[in-house]
Amino acid sequence: MNKSYDVVIIGGAVIGSAVAYFLKNNPDFDGSVLIIEKDPTFATASTSLSSSAIRNQFSNPVNVKIGQFGTQFIREFGDIMEVDGEKPELNFHEGGYLFLASTDEQAQILRENHVVQREQGADVVLWNPDQIKEAFPHINVEDLQLASYGQSGEGWFSNTGLMNGYRKKARAMGADYLIDTVTGMTREGNRVTSVTLQSGEEIGCGTVINASGPRAAVTARMAGLDIPVEPRKRSLFVFDCAQTPEGSATVNGGKLPLMIDPSGSFCRPEGSLFLAGTVPEEDPAVDWDDFEPRHDEFERIWMDLATRSSSFEAIKLKNFWAGHYAFNTLDHNVIVGPHTEVRNFIFANGFSGHGLQQSPAIGRGVAELITYGGFRTLDLSQLGYERVLAGEPFTEKAVI
User: Fold this and answer.
1) Where in the sequence is the signal peptide annotated (predicted)?
2) What average pLDDT does this structure show over 322-337?
3) Which of 196-200, 215-219, 396-400 has the lowest mean pLDDT?
4) Where are the chain's structural domains?
């Protein structure tokens, strides 16, 4: 390990490792890269505990484009990340997303979002209740007005497979990984010059990247900076049902989509089982070590899903866990790019549950910033830190 690196990345899960890969894969970048990760097991990382899905159904063009690049990248991931003849398999299940609307307001949002999505070339359709019922016969459509369905380009995949693929490829291309904890930073004027580790070592740096997930604010404060990111808990439940509706769809080879009910509860098939979650009724910041699932949410999910489909009336809980969103309290969107004054401190934070699916585009974008001083392929400047200082949210209406 060197005493100084051109780029030091704090956080080695999916975002940090994506940045490392895109840097080392860029022929115009010839610098050294160090990723510092405090927990080599990633047991409580947002990456490991994520439901790991990807969609193109967003309300902002840039988020649609981020999703589209992510889909393309995930489809080709095995070939891209091949090392010594071994190709990682993400088991991408392209089941699509199905957003359901029961109120005038919800339906109008779907219509407005659909215009944006189609303008960007997303393969999304709007369906009336009869069309919903024809495609997915198990769904109760009596109270529904509209649905938005991603016919391709959306689905779910292996979360750890994505992270480990990035990590293995980045290391094979020369990135260094260090298991340690960053405890401080040294600033000289408007530059971070080094990071201090729990082990007592000091590592010099040309650029620092904050990829520390829900702990992003802690990392930023080490450089005397602020970022509106905090840990918010999300509980996930896996259940079996006596009469599964999987295979009953008349579209997409019988595969069911990830269905988002108007209530906020969602579910998707996981082999012979189903995975489900919901939007918490109360959503406070939580302690860094609080991973106890909110068990009362399962009763609400069950009621919502049973109302939506008789297939979900008789179900049995099989597994559950909780993970943390790196929640951007300003606008639920990623903050990516340099601080306005400390220009060699780069944020890649506040994904609010979208980190895995957005890691290809954000990793590529951060690598371009470092290599060229600006974005080259997809302009992510709307997602920069400037909006935080101005207190101007970059609103995304399609948030789950």
Assistant:
1) none
2) 97
3) 396-400
4) 4-82+158-228+330-390, 97-151+232-321
Burial class of residue 157, CB neighbours in 10 A (0-12, 13-18, 19+) = buried
User: In the beta sheet, which residues pair with residue 195?
Assistant: 185, 203
pLDDT level of residue 2 (50, 70, 90 thresholds): confident
Can you tell me whether residue 272 is helix, strand or coil? coil
- The span from the CA of 127 to the CA of 90, in Å, is 30
Residue 328 in tokens: 């951007």
pTM of the model: 0.97
Q: Which two tokens stand for residue 70?
A: 């992510």
Predicted confidence at residue 400, as pLDDT, reads: 73
Whether 97-151+232-321 and 4-82+158-228+330-390 are alike in CATH topology: the answer is no
Minimal CA–CA distance to 215: which of 186, 180, 245, 182? 182
Cα separation, 222 vs 202, whole angstroms: 14
Give the H/E segment covering residue 55. Answer: none
CA 19 to each of CA 133, 174, 370: distance values in angstroms, whole numbers, following the listed order: 43, 13, 10
CATH topology of domain 4-82+158-228+330-390: FAD/NAD(P)-binding domain (3.50.50)
| Concatenated DSSP letters of 145-173 | -EEEEE-SS-EE--HHHHHHHHHHHHHHT
Pick from 293, 319, 315, 291: nearest CA to 304: 315
Cα angle 68-74-78, degrees, rounded to a multiple of 5? 155
> Distance between CA 359 and CA 70 in Å, rounded?
7
Neighbours of 391 (CB within 10 A): 8
**Helix 61-75 / helix 104-119 crossing angle, nearest 10 deg:** 60
Kindly state which CATH superfamily the domain 97-151+232-321 is placed in: D-Amino Acid Oxidase, subunit A, domain 2 (3.30.9.10)
Residues 6+ apart with CB under 8 A from 37: 11, 12, 13, 16, 177, 178, 179
Compute the distance between CA of residue 268 and CA of residue 93 in angstroms, rounded to an integer: 11
Instruction: Give the CA radius of gyration of the chain.
Output: 21
| Residue indicated by tokens 């995975």 | 275
